[in-house]
Amino acid sequence: MNTPLCTTDGTALEESARRLLEPGPFGYVAGGAGSGATVRANRAAFDRWRIVPRMLRGAHVRDLGTTLFGERLPAPILLAPIGVQSIVHPDGELASARAAAACGLPFVVSTMSSYSLEQIAEASDGPRWFQLYWPDDPEVCLSLLDRARRAGCTTLVVTLDNWTFGWRTRDLDQDYSPAAQGIGTATAFSDPVFRSRLDRPPRDDLPAAIAQWKAMFTGVDREWQDLGFLRRNWPGPLVLKGILHPDDAVLAADAGVDAVVVSNHGGRQVDGAIAALDALPEVVAAVGERITVLFDSGVRTGADLVKALCLGADAVLVGRPYVYGLAHGGEAGVSRVLTNLLTEFDLTVTLSGGRQRSDLRPEVLKTNREVGFVSA
User: Fold this and answer.
1) Averaged over 293-302, what is the pLDDT?
2) Which domain CATH number covers 346?
3) Which candidate in 60, 89, 245, 265 is catalytic?
């Protein structure tokens, strides 16, 4: 399907992608844990806030760029780490990374990418971060960190909330598991230390390689004191993804990390969990003056970006929307979604009277209760 048919309505991208994709890949991307209550809660949380525009602010002149860890970005937006992207388009992460680079936005490379760290680095010269699913083998972990540095990844994002897969009913009902097919294992299978743990190369005994991958990358939860290993072995910014409780944010700051991502994994891990946006203000209050606070989960529109930034996020990671764009047209589809999102964000800010990132403060918003809004 041609990219122009990729809708400009961020909230309609999912339904548009549903018509393009087979049930297995679509369910994997769109699905949440259990009944989907957390996915719905993420969207409902955005709808509880209303923007209060201000007038005569000279907003025709503006600069919405920001600086993260010393790197200047055109907007406070990143592409969230999402693995196995080849299930929606054969170019997968290569296309997404190129589209991100064209917009000047960081692309966070997932450990479960369909292509290796080195292939993604070769495809794109844009800013790159690396998301780590922490393997239960210190030597493999050190190898991955070394490769990430060599591949130009400046920041390490450690996902905390997916050490074992949640109860994802769409995948279970359809018996759909990309990892069980060896999809999303490119970085692991190309790692020399990982391969040294195998009797034969992955291509010669794929079931054995998949079994080792599963045993090494899932099933082990870490503890706070374990973070010292990563802090000692990663020289750049260290980010913890999956924080929802302010006490955990404080523990993260005490452990010497540089940032947290307030996230519930897009509703994919715990059914009935708190909406990430509802958790954001308390986390910001707890650690916002000590470390960087990033945000993801439920973002679909430029207005969503404004709300998350007003509630204290230093920057926002966007996930499913760009993957839906990938399904529509590869790199061109991702580019269209990102361009739409950036343009809508810019228009929402300027029509609300904002001129720069610092204008996005809590007082720009009111709750539905404050304005007397009652949903239908």
Assistant:
1) 98
2) 3.20.20.70
3) 265
